[in-house]
Specification:
2 domains, 0% strand
């Protein structure tokens, strides 16, 4: 494979309309999780130091984005941890207001005043609903702007 400098290749791409395609290829490679070495190989040229640093940063950001996406998926450990946190918040609140509610309601609540891990599955599902709302809010913030 012929190796040309990144400046010469980008100048050539710009003159023949290929710069847009090169940038698209870089973006697709980063989204696909290619390593820096794979990315450089797919470009067909050896980047100069300045571009090399930018491409390395892009690959790092792509890896961080994938980890974030996995963390805020609708399944997995993150969702369960958020659900447990939601339950803990509810438990603290319900205990704080327990004196203000009817006795029969307080009796129902007391059954759920236990660690998340000890709850029946139907109760965990309620906490997961709220955890998913948190996940959707985070996704909206990250991907949809502020």
């Amino acid at each position: 494979m012929e190796t040309r400098s990144s400046a010469a290749t980008l100048d050539s791409n710009r003159s023949n309309g290929g710069l847009k395609n090169t940038l698209k290829a870089i973006l697709e490679a980063v989204r696909a999780g290619q390593s820096y070495g794979q990315l450089v190989k797919s470009l067909g040229f050896r980047p100069d130091l300045e571009l090399e640093l930018v491409l390395a940063d892009l690959c790092q950001l792509g890896a961080e984005l994938r980890r974030f996406q996995e963390a805020v998926s609708d399944e997995g450990e993150c969702l369960e941890r958020l659900a447990a946190l939601e339950h803990e918040q509810w438990e603290l609140w319900s205990k704080a207001v327990a004196e203000e509610v009817r006795e029969e309601r307080r009796a129902r609540w007391e059954f759920y005043w236990k660690p998340y891990e000890e709850l029946p599955e139907h109760a965990k599902d309620q906490d997961r609903i709220w955890a998913r709302r948190v996940v959707r809010t985070i996704r909206s913030y990250v991907y949809g702007g502020r």
